[in-house]
Write a structure and sequence with these properties.
By secondary structure, this protein is of the alpha+beta class. It has helices at about 20-35, 50-65, 160-165, 170-175, 175-180, 185-205, 210-220, 230-240, 240-250, 265-270, 280-300, 310-320, 330-340, 350-360, 400-405, 425-435, 440-445, 455-475, and strands at about 75-85, 100-105, 110-125, 130, 135-140, 145, 150-155, 365-375, 380-390, 415-420, 420-425.
Length: about 475
């Protein structure tokens, strides 16, 4: 067989035509053309370095090992969920009653059906359990419903592209003022991160306070850029003094009055010294944000307010401490867990020390309870609504002054915690004395009040106030 070249033709072979050779000669050039950078779709550069990715992956694995839910086989949803749950209002609710939009009685039953609406990012696990708004765990029982009509299933593998298409963002146009607050050496990376990640945050309706758990969930669900959310965490944390301060300075001072009059000036001075911010390394920001988020899980008022048990949240928090834990956060988590295991309401007849152990600083909001009654005339059903809040475990009494002074420096755990961490019984005694004496007892005793509040500081302050009390007791007790 003879092929004669003509205009626009190529002589493939002479003599016999071998199909294998022809295909090989034709296909190889096509492969080369397809792989050409000029023709291939542009692949965006990774936002994290390989070392950063390895560090975040290792921390994610440790968090999962500590008991965090594994979303490897979960389905992700974004948008609004409508939930209805039927339960006996005399028992614990499956979801926070404060989030209920509707309550309906169940005929011939004391059970009630509560209706809820939740927006944001949700996950449904293979066993039917829902993680709603990255806040609440809900496993529907028979008759309960989760309506997803107003939510969308997220194709996690295609998340970056889908978000960029639906929620485009250009940092140079949309975040001009924000970028000015970032140190010049970090600005290019921050801009690249915002361009790629802000569309995802908006597309998923993702709350900034839940970015740390979102990293773990989305990574296991199959999004290969989940770790890069640590850059968003870092950018947000860098501009929030009360998130950065616990990791960089000495222990906070303690104000038993709860006023902390210098805190605003302290924050303003910090901001003035940093007209532009330098974000933490992404792994560091992710770890510290996970610690902070886990602590919120531990200190929740009620189990239905969060989706982790205190034990699991504590294990995760201890995984997320800084290397070698220079801040002593592991011990603080142990003390916090010990305090949260104490009852909110002490046993009847409990002594002062026990009541101080159960005494919280926060004021608990009343919880709504809607109950159904028995059927009335004409088939009507009565309903009752009540708001319940626990009575404070302790109310300072003048008759307790001597006993409170004696309890100063007591290191037994308590339910009292604040931004700086957990506080022992002795700090609650100092808080009660400040209420009764209408001033910080340490100031009355001439003891410094602005020093880091450590175990040694507690001991020294207790000794100073107890010595002062022996001398001045009559001035307060016999008035």
């Amino acid at each position: 067989m003879k092929l004669t070249p003509g205009p626009g033709r190529v002589a493939i072979a002479k003599g016999k035509l071998r199909s294998g050779k022809v295909l090989r000669h034709l296909i190889l050039p096509m492969i080369v053309l397809a792989a050409s950078p000029l023709l291939a779709a542009e692949v965006p550069a990774p936002l994290l370095t390989q070392a950063e990715s390895r560090g975040i992956d290792a921390l994610t694995a440790a968090i999962l090992k500590a008991g965090f839910p594994d979303a490897a086989k979960a389905v992700a949803y974004s948008g609004e969920l409508s939930v209805s749950a039927t339960f006996d209002p005399k028992g614990p609710p499956p979801l926070p009653s404060s989030r209920s939009k509707m309550q309906m009685s169940v005929p011939n039953s004391t059970n009630m059906t509560y209706g809820y609406q939740f927006d944001g990012l949700h996950f449904k696990f293979p066993d039917g359990t829902w993680l709603i708004s990255l806040n609440y765990r809900f496993k529907p029982k028979e008759g309960d419903k989760v309506n997803t009509d107003a939510a969308s299933v997220i194709n996690v593998a295609d998340l970056t592209a889908a978000a960029a298409k639906e929620k485009p963002f250009d940092a140079e146009k949309d975040a001009v003022e924000w970028l000015k607050t970032v140190a010049p050496e970090h600005r290019a990376r921050t801009k690249a991160g915002m361009n790629r990640l802000v569309p995802v945050l908006n597309y998923l309706r993702l709350d900034l306070d839940h970015l740390a758990p979102a990293v773990v969930l989305l990574a296991r669900a199959g999004w290969n850029e989940a770790g890069a959310l640590s850059l968003s965490i870092s950018d947000q944390r860098a501009q929030k003094y009360w998130q950065m301060r616990p990791w960089s300075g000495p222990e906070f001072a303690f104000d038993p009055t709860g006023e902390y009059p210098k805190s605003e000036a302290e924050e303003q001075a910090w901001r003035k010294a940093r007209p532009q911010f330098s974000p933490e390394p992404p792994e560091t920001a992710f770890r510290r944000a996970m610690f902070r988020w886990s602590r919120v899980q531990i200190t929740a008022e009620s189990p239905e307010d969060v989706f982790l048990t205190p034990a699991v949240a504590g294990a995760i928090a201890k995984v997320a401490v800084d290397p070698k834990d220079p801040q002593g956060n592991g011990a603080k988590i142990d003390a916090l867990l010990a305090g949260m295991r104490l009852p909110v309401t002490p046993p009847e007849g409990a002594g002062l020390a026990i009541r101080l152990q159960c005494w919280e600083a926060r004021e608990r909001k009343p919880r709504m309870v809607v109950g159904g009654g028995k059927p009335g005339a004409g088939g009507s059903i009565s309903m009752s609504t009540s708001f319940i809040a626990p009575v404070p475990a302790y109310v300072p009494q003048k008759s307790d002054l001597d006993a409170l002074v004696a309890l100063l420096g007591d290191e037994r755990p308590s339910r009292f915690w604040e931004f700086s961490g957990p506080h022992p019984v002795g700090d609650n005694a100092l808080r009660a004395l400040a209420i009764l004496l209408k001033a910080d007892p340490r100031a009355l005793a001439g003891h410094p009040t602005d020093r880091p509040w450590t175990a040694a500081g507690r001991k020294a302050a207790a000794a100073a106030v107890q010595k002062w009390w022996k001398e001045k007791r009559k001035d307060y007790v016999e008035k």
